[in-house]
Write a structure and sequence with these properties.
InterPro entries: Tnp_DDE_dom (IPR025668). By secondary structure, the protein is an alpha+beta fold. Helix content is 50%, strand content 13%. Strands 1-2-3-4-5 form a five-stranded antiparallel sheet, with no helix packed on it. Helix 6 (116-150) runs antiparallel to helix 7.
């Protein structure tokens, strides 16, 4: 059987073309926001692909397309651009990791609270805890590097300056779970 992807949609004229170059015109939109495109029975009656195309007794092929399909195709194209791919990789390393930690170790998988305000308070406290953990880790690293500097180990001087530059440019605190735009 031929699938809807075997039919070509012409966005300008708003119709589908079958593999035999016959037009499927718009007929109706159903309650679930799908547009129905139907072929003409006289075009399909003598078609060589009729047995592969449809089993309809009326010799008609019906193809449905969601009203937001064009927007979904645009989003799919945007998703494959290199800048967006890099942004998703960065998100996977930062935001998703924190969300997984919060879910697994800070009881965000299940909750007893009811209501948006109570959940916002719980998530806010959880994110504050995660930020405190991150601050503690950074303070521990900085204290270690300061001790090395105090001992006058000159080979570590350049590492300390690199670390300070990186820490001041990317603190990386999380204030909510939405991705930055």
């Amino acid at each position: 059987m031929l699938r809807p992807k075997d039919f070509i949609y012409d966005d300008y004229y708003g119709y589908y073309l079958c593999p035999e170059n016959q037009v499927l015109t718009y007929r109706t939109t159903n309650r679930k926001n799908y547009r129905g495109y139907q072929s003409q029975p006289e075009d399909c009656q003598n078609c060589p692909l009729l047995s592969q195309c449809t089993t309809s007794q009326a010799f008609q092929k019906v193809v449905t397309r969601h009203v937001w399909k064009a927007d979904l195709e645009i989003c799919e194209d945007i998703r494959h651009h290199q800048g967006v791919i890099d942004r998703y990789r960065k998100r996977k390393e930062t935001t998703e990791r924190l969300f997984g930690t919060a879910k697994e170790y800070h009881n965000l998988r299940h909750t007893r609270e009811r209501g948006k305000s109570k959940m916002e308070a719980k998530v806010g406290l959880t994110l504050a805890c995660l930020n405190l953990k991150k601050t503690r880790k950074m303070a521990g690293r900085i204290a270690f590097l300061v001790c090395l500097k105090f001992l006058k180990l000159s080979s570590f001087d350049h590492k300390i300056s690199k670390y300070r530059k990186r820490q001041t440019s990317e603190i990386g605190f999380v204030f909510n779970l939405t991705s930055p735009r």
